[in-house]
Amino acid sequence: MQIDYLVGGLRISLGPDTMTPGPANHIENAVGALRALGHDVSLYLSSAQPVLSRFASVGEGTAGGSRVPPLAGDAVRLGASALNSARVAAWSASSTADIVYERAAVLTDLSAAHRRARPGGAVRVVESNGIFSRETAHDRNALAAEGLARRIERRLYQKADVVVAVSENLAAELREYAALPDNKLLVVPNGVPPEVADLPRRTPRRIIGFAGAVIDWQNLENLVHAFARVRATLEDGAEWRVHIVGDGPALPALHEAVRADGIGDAVQFLPRMSRTDLYDEMSSWSVGVALHRPSSSRTMYHSPLKLYEYAGLGLACLVSASPDAARLQEAGAAITVVEPTADGIAAALHEIMRAGQVDPDVAHARAASVRQGHGWTTRMESVLQRVEEIAAPGIRFVRP
């Protein structure tokens, strides 16, 4: 079957130099899984288009270090959306797609321009990992025309045949936000990247690691403060290290927290790196952290990709509460859920660090158990099964 996959986000690019590793990882894993299931996937990427490619290296809002005023950013997005829509219309003129699959983005509705996304044509799937008009306006301070963005976003979801949400919490918010019926929503969390299964087994070191965008809601200052307290109380505390991989606007404050706590010898900051290098780095850790705290949403509705990376490598995971954490714990991952405060993190860190390094055989067994039920192929099969239910009779997307 033919699937046309549309990505309208201006800053989302693929490959080792991407400035948006989380979305890039998600897209590449989803597309790779669809192809592994035997489907032809054509990818339309806004950041790969002439003129628009320059925006893939621009930060967004105060949360991303950009100096572009929100109103100017809105004008750029609207112009880019018009250009993308014209190009998608031309790009799709000869398409025979059975599915038009769009990753939602602010001020964007590319599938509306696709020639096959019409009644009687392809099944229209829209994937969401957040309420973008609100996030962009309130979490990143990068949107002035929030009302317009909200109308476009709601219409995008309402016109879809299937809306894929990355968590139960997000599905509940989308149901209310866009007045969606239950039968239109499908929860499909992130999954374990297939590359982690091919890594050589290593003996974990006494390293507590984080990989991702270094922004305020990742809660890394509380991690640093908690680590400083616990390290001073344990006999072997000086042997432990914290590795932070990534960049972002919270880095200066984080460096200052490390300096103030006097643990500069124990905290190592590493730049963004390719996925191959990142997984090699992660494979030496004992503990991975995903200690998100709430942003503009009333719930934590994200599906932390890093949590699946950590669990797929067999690491002990120190995390905020989420349905993803509960599912991975049921699958055999070593999950410790904490209140994302310095005191809550410190109490859990004390137990984890006191227990010492993870046995490599135990880590390997954990990883194998998690990968069995949380791979990307399984995730995308669930999407295709829903599509089958509403497609024309006789069309099969999932192998018998």
TrEMBL record:
<keyword id="KW-0328">Glycosyltransferase</keyword>
<dbReference type="GO" id="GO:0016757">
    <property type="term" value="F:glycosyltransferase activity"/>
</dbReference>
<keyword id="KW-0808">Transferase</keyword>
<dbReference type="Pfam" id="PF13692">
    <property type="entry name" value="Glyco_trans_1_4"/>
</dbReference>
<feature type="domain" description="Glycosyltransferase subfamily 4-like N-terminal">
    <location>
        <begin position="22"/>
        <end position="195"/>
    </location>
</feature>
<dbReference type="Pfam" id="PF13439">
    <property type="entry name" value="Glyco_transf_4"/>
</dbReference>
<protein>
    <submittedName>
        <fullName>Glycosyltransferase</fullName>
        <ecNumber>2.4.-.-</ecNumber>
    </submittedName>
</protein>
<dbReference type="InterPro" id="IPR028098">
    <property type="entry name" value="Glyco_trans_4-like_N"/>
</dbReference>
